[in-house]
Amino acid sequence: MSNYSYMALGEELDKDAYVVCKYRVTTDLPIEKAAEAIAAEQSTGTWTGISTLNDEVFTRYAAKVTAIDGDVVTIAYPEEDFSIRVGAIPQILSVISGNLYGLGSLKGVRLEDVVFPKGILKQYQGPKFGDKGLREILHRPEKPLVGTIVKPKIGLSPKDTAGYIYEAGSGGLTNGKDDETLVDQAFCPIEERTKAVAEVLDRLREEGHHMVHAINISTNGQDIRELAEDVQSWGATQLMIDVLTCGYGAIQAVAEDPRIKIPVHVHRTMHAAMTKDPLNGISMRVISKLVRMCGGDALHIGTLGAGKMGGDSTEGRLNQDACQSDDVPFKSVMPVCSGGMYPGIVPAVVKAAGTNCQIQAGGGVAGHPEGVRAGAMAMCQAVDAAFEGIDIAEYAQTHHELKLALDRWGTK
Ligand code: RUB
Question: Which letter does DSSP use for residue 99 in this model?
């Protein structure tokens, strides 16, 4: 550490001049020392005093520790520490979420939250469509969107994938999507799959039902924009990108491209490597804020404690708030509740997440005893019951598909 102090506890800061982060810190050091070590490492300091750090550089660019509350420390980084021209998440992450994890004196650090000043937010465009845009496309103004992930994850041909989507749409689902591990394998080439799915979506539209399907274009940085354009030209109605395996820049490159005129569904595969440990990593709330800045129109936020993937309702609500709060100059993102979803847990999800969300099931549709169409109907019936505030077991008395689903999987 340098000879300079990085503490400015309690100092009133101009919120428009700093990026403010909250970290949960586990350490044997006094918490003040740990906070100072983070502020130093991530701005103008290093492990020892250095002759090249002068007063001017320190005063202007050093991060400040502005609050300590138990094991949570607040650190404010001057806006000038960040890139000035274009929105560049990699440089932001290197500052707020970089070397600090490796500091040997810290047993754990979790970036819990970040708030950006207006000057940085304005470098980003946010979602082109957002939740309202998706609802307009789907002619579904109020009820939760109801979706499916084509299952099995891999192995189906383009024709079988399209057949699945037709059945799902005929059963009433508004959204379909590829799974995260499917992109362009030999058994299901992306061009053939996109065209086959587009054809059945057209057929559904002619029959009076509006549905979109997200085609997974997650690939290398060099090709993703071109693939997005190709997939759009083959008739895709939505794109899907795995944000953490592709990088935030991939979302931004596609969403900010004026030639792309369809929404982007953002999957978060691999997030648990960063979000699962309550004492180390990065919270999903932070990831959600970054995805919104970069232009994701829909984002997985978990099932708020109801499904198979963990994550409780408090954490889910913070993610949802990051998607939909009105304290940033962007459209709201459609929060996607997915992962071990089935009709019997829909009331719990709607109770926790409200009705402005996309509720989505793979196994909970394809595993229905009477097949995909009946599985889709059961999911829609469960959502209708929750939307109307009717007890799901009572609703099932007059809805055969829902009854079978509850008999198979129960409720929560
Ligand atoms: C869900 C699924 C998705 C998960 C990811 O399938 O395949 O990839 O939603 O989890 P199923 P999360 O409905 O059969 O469980 O949404 O938490 O990121």
Answer: G
Taking CA atoms, 172 is separated from 28, 177, 205, 379, 390, in Å, by: 56, 15, 12, 9, 19
DSSP string, 212-275: EEEEE----TTTHHHHHHHHHHTT-SEEEEEHHHH-HHHHHHHHT-TT--S-EEEE-TTTHHHH
CB-based contact 354:321 (threshold 8 Å)? no
Q: Is the pTM of this model over 0.90?
A: yes
What's the token pair of residue 297? Answer: 């129109």
Strand positions, DSSP E, 268-367: 281-282, 298-300, 334-338, 358-361
For residue range 229-246, what is the model confidence (pLDDT) as tens digits?
999 999 999 999 999 999
Query: Rounded to the nearest whole angstrom, what is the distance from the C-alpha of residue 77 to the centroid of ligand 1?
Result: 36
Q: Give the nearest ligand 1 atom to 337 CA.
A: 16
With beta carbons less than 8 A apart as the criterion, state whether 112 and 23 touch.
yes
d(C-alpha 361, C-alpha 345), whole Å: 11
Does ligand 1 have an atom closer than 6 angstroms to the CB of 300?
yes
Tell me how long the chain is. Answer: 412
Residues near 70 by Cβ (< 8 Å), separated by ≥ 6?
none
Closest atom, ligand 1, to C-alpha of 271: 18
Task: Determine the distance separating the centroid of ligand 1 and the alpha carbon of 68, expressed in angstroms.
Answer: 37
Count the neighbouring beta carbons within 10 Å of the beta carbon of residue 278. 13
CA of 302 to the centre of ligand 1 (A): 8
DSSP string of 91-155?
Answer: HHHHHHTSGGGG-TTEEEEEEEEEE--HHHHTT----SSHHHHHHHHHT-SSSPEEEEE-SSSS-
Given a contact cutoff of 8 angstroms between Cβ atoms, the answer to whether 67 and 10 are in contact is: yes
Residue showing tokens 């919270």: 283
Beta bridge partners of 241: 266
- Report how far residue 325's alpha carbon sits from residue 362's, in angstroms, rounded to the nearest whole number: 29
Q: Whose CA is nearest to atom 17 of ligand 1?
A: 302
Q: Nearest Cα to 260, choosing from 221, 236, 241, 232?
A: 232
Residue type present at position 60: R
Summarised one tens digit per residue, pLDDT across range 339-375 is 999 999 999 999 999 999 999 999 999 999 999 999 9
Cite the active site residues. Answer: 151, 267
